[in-house]
Fold each of these.
Amino acid sequence: MSSESPVVGVLALQGDVREHLVALAAADAVARPVRRPEELAGIDGLVLPGGESTTISKLAVLFGVMEPLRARVRAGMPVYGTCAGLIMLADKILDPRSGQETVGGIDMIVRRNAFGRQNESFEAAVDVQGVAGAPVEGVFIRAPWVESVGAAAEVLAEHGGHIVAVRQGNALATSFHPELTGDHRVHSLFVDMVRANRAAESL
């Protein structure tokens, strides 16, 4: 790992945090868990992991990180959300739970648990724009899908006629979990986004 490696946090309030830390390290980032506002201040980019989006939302408010996180995303900090993290990055949820908030950042409308319940989880090969080589093996666990996107958002992948990967500026989101497969190409794409943003800010 080089001294130029960007520092990428994983929001460590709930969900599959460890797997993302491993994937980010494999993608040549310095990976750190983030739970508090002061930890958020010391990173170049952030991953919002899978888990339970309502729980993550409420804990983010409780730990005081929701507002500073929104501010950093609005200011252009690169952010990547998987599954529940995708829901957190949506500007609108079709069927929000009571008290559920989002960080926002991507002009999209999402549907929670759209691909079915836990026992309907599945894996599928997904062609993701910007990821070279063979399709990415996507793990879909109670996965959301994106119902629609605004003009500023770019669709990177679809599965079964539904949008499952989106990018808008420095925000990236996937319905599936690439961190569970040992294939770190999506994390490498995100780390490249973080690196490019850091380079632009240093000019």
Amino acid sequence: MTPTPLTLAQVEDLARRAHAGQTDKAGRPYAEHLAAVADGVRARGGDEEQIAAAWLHDAVEDDALTEEWLDGAALTPRTKAIVLALTKRPGEPSEEYARRILATPGAALVKRADLAHNADPARLAVLDEPTRRRLAEKYTRMRALLGQAEEG
């Protein structure tokens, strides 16, 4: 029998605990980014599985949780697939990463919310100019690979 999937509140709590002590490039608590992406998914019409994936989208990539944990977690198969699709592998070409996201139902919307928050001018403004420029170019390129328009 399949266990009942974790509620969104449980997923949020789990993600906050898994990323406790981590900060983003600007030194802010990493959970602020996760909350912003989850809110962005919700605002873009995402469903509960996508919102759960938003909370966990960086967990495996950042080694906050393991892929083995994800495999056995009380999450829907779709949520797990989205999290894995959004987990960039070391040395993985951006084109391959984008293809996997586009091939996974529901993942592109989560990545769109992630990119929107990552590229937020207020977030980028606190970074030094070379870092700001490098990240802006990276996010623009990923949007292009995903066929997503720039968001303001």
Amino acid sequence: MERNNLYPIFLKTKNLEVLIVGGGFVAEEKLTFLLKSSPDANVTMVSPMFRSGTISLAKTGNVKLIKKKYSRRYLKKKHIVVATTDIPAINETVYKHCRKRSILVNVADNPPFCDFYMGGIVTKGNVKVAISTNGKSPTTAKRLRQFFEEVIPENIDDLVKNLNEYRKTIKGDFEEKVEKLNEFTKSLVEK
């Protein structure tokens, strides 16, 4: 049976440099979801053209637009790259340049040229749920995101904050604290 072997992580994009290669619809979509999840992300976009929506969106975040063709010099000091052009040869070149420099890269809609996928994300205050379909069905990830947005209560952040305060008052070693918190939160997952 096939399974998803991806390792999920939550990146502090404020501490990283992200490059998006392309200025079309897919680039705008990637920027939209990146800024929705991480409004303080450091992003550079390079493309000979940008959609008007991308230009407006860039003004809402820490986004630098470079109106030029892609060149490997734009990879300098970048940690993550997303290639979104509609020219496969350019996307493959970006991928090869990134692999050579050990930079994580995602070529949109091309799983063999991806070190990571940008999955569905649900955010409610401090709670964030990421959804992956192993790159096989972004539409399924979207539907699951919509489902979780509805079922996770709006006040979940209050619970998280209250548990954080409670955690600070618990006495004992690490194992005792974990045991008390597990007992206290057990009712959250009971059916």
Amino acid sequence: MRAYVPLTISGLATAQGAGELGPGPLTAYAVTPGLREWYVSDDIEELEYAALSRAAAASLRLLAGDPGSARRRVVVAVDVPDTLVSADPDSALDASSLGEVKIASAVALTRAAAVHVDAEDALADVTAAADALGAADHGDDDAQFVVDGAEDHELLWFGVQEIPNLIA
């Protein structure tokens, strides 16, 4: 199963040093039955993009909780055995956890297929979104508009061999 693990640049550096994402259980995002139903598509590429987008939103939450971290969303795409991944069937009822899964144990970086990271031109919007997230969660429409501005930026694709350059 392809799963998308949300991180920060400092989390990516930690994973690079350890050679794995972990420890488990890891929160990730994947194409789940609930995500399929919500997105209403049979196109696997579209569904995986939706899961990646959910992970990018989770990465933004990590940034909001870590003011010292570089203001770039990071998502690592990993291929893991289905037996290591579980989804809460009740999560389909909660829009904020659509596509959320748990990976039971740490995942070796050798299982990573790619790393997705914000481009430099997204930094101002991602910083503003991380700062506005708390207010948006409390119903502030203006803050939600700022948060949505970060989602307008596509994450760039990087090969796993490029991680040292991303964390430098």
